[in-house]
Automatic annotation (TrEMBL):
<dbReference type="InterPro" id="IPR022519">
    <property type="entry name" value="Gloeo/Verruco_rpt"/>
</dbReference>
<dbReference type="InterPro" id="IPR006311">
    <property type="entry name" value="TAT_signal"/>
</dbReference>
<protein>
    <submittedName>
        <fullName>Choice-of-anchor tandem repeat GloVer-containing protein</fullName>
    </submittedName>
</protein>
<dbReference type="InterPro" id="IPR011042">
    <property type="entry name" value="6-blade_b-propeller_TolB-like"/>
</dbReference>
Amino acid sequence: MTSHPSLPSRRRVLMGLAAAGGSTLFGLPGTALAAPAWRSETLRAFTGTDGSRAVGGLVFGPDGLLYGVHAMGGERGLGTLFRWSTEGGYEVLHHLDYATDEPAEPESGLIVGQDGLLWGTSLFGGAQFAGTIYTLSTDAAMTVRGEFGQLNGMRMPQAALLEGSAGQFYGTTAESVFRFSSGAGGQLKQLHRFKPKTDGASSRAPLIFGPDGKLYGSNMMRGPKGQGTIFRLNTDGSAFEVVKAFDGKTDGGDVRAPLLLAADGHFYGCTTSGGAWDRGVVFKLSASGQYTVLHHFAGGDNDGAYPDGGLITGPDGALYGTTLEGGSSPQSYGTVFRITPRGRLRLIHRFTENGADGSTPTGSLCVGPDGQLYGTTQSGAQGLGALYRLSMR
């Protein structure tokens, strides 16, 4: 199988859905969903000085503007925090710099907190260079809220945060599940440390809440069948259990993307590898562990390959996602796809080698208040990817 960069994905991608006219995550059972035509528009071709290697997807902030994160580039090569708007265009809000114990080289996107701040994690930075939790305000003030290192025995978070109640945030490192209390001084607590053989290891997707109020997440590697797991646990760290173990064969393997909890009570997601052609799958999972593959990616001209970002629901009620490759042959540069809950998949956009919107789409798509889809690519354009928008024709 082709080797790909390890790219995490982000959590909140459904902001603006109500404004876009969506009321439920899926259409009624048995309802045929019309497949609209879409067109791509490049909003920004990244140059490196303004950031490169966008990670984790995008999010609309409390001010209605679009925010994102770069893992590299900027003035010091350690990433940037940026935003975009129709009126103001593209703006770098902060150039990251670990020399001052700031966040550096983040591998996840931002979420909007109940306090109106944008919250994120970084792989490096902080006093022990083991990663941070930070906030960004809409007036561009960046503040470190928590640090990883020897004092709490955790390091290098790669996933976005999940907010609970009363200022509690939940997240993962490659080795553990943690809780961060955002009160005075901020406090990090390890809730569970993964046992690779039984639990899996290398968690890169953000946690979500299940219908039972428990935390659900995934590990990319190891576990009982060797190719990763989906797990759950209580918010106090108790009752950890594996819901699904992947074998890397027909059921897929390597879960990098966040799960999506739908209105029908099922989880939907993707694996980056495995499946009938070892190019990943789209799956459905019940809380009781019943697992169904909805689509096996095959690559080539008419299918994607190696999905990296999570699924979102579009304004038409179908699910949307991206793949790192596929859409053309023999060379392929990635796709955006639409799939119904019954597994009917259609490509709505193919990236090309010299396209203005870049290639190799990363992270989850984001639905805007205007009902359009926003995303980022990591290559192409000027060589460093682009910020793009997909609109219904």
